[in-house]
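Trying the structure run again after the queue cleared.
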Amino acid sequence: MDHRVMGVIGASGGLGVSTLAVALAVRAGPLVGATVAVDGAPGGGALDVTACIEHLPGLRWPDLAAAQGGLDGAALLRALPAEGTTRVLAGGGRGLGEDVVRAALTGLARVCGVAVLDLGRSVWLADQCSELVCVAGTSARHLADATA
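Done. Tokens:
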């Protein structure tokens, strides 16, 4: 990866990981130029809804299901729905191959000042991140989850 990929992971569900991932990407935009928020759990919910851009046209994970090999990050970035300088790659991509997700993230990281990866509660893409932010609650259960 040529640029910063920031991963946001939740120790437990419902802590606002997706909201934080979108906020980080939006706030970084004025400082670094093009940013992207990537849903690292493509089979789950839609990060574009969290970003309030679900009504905008652009590629979502299901549109990339047949992709093979490397992906052109600049072309992919231009094809994603956007709000200002921040673009979002999201949408229910059930059955999406791990290689497609990694190729998209690699391509986008090459052309963006910052790519923010919403990992949800999974670490399967943590090795792609230059930084990780772990979000934890303060209840006994949340702290136990964070410790685990």
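Helices lie at 17-32, 47-50, 73-79, 98-111, 140-147. Worth checking whether this holds up in the mutant runs.
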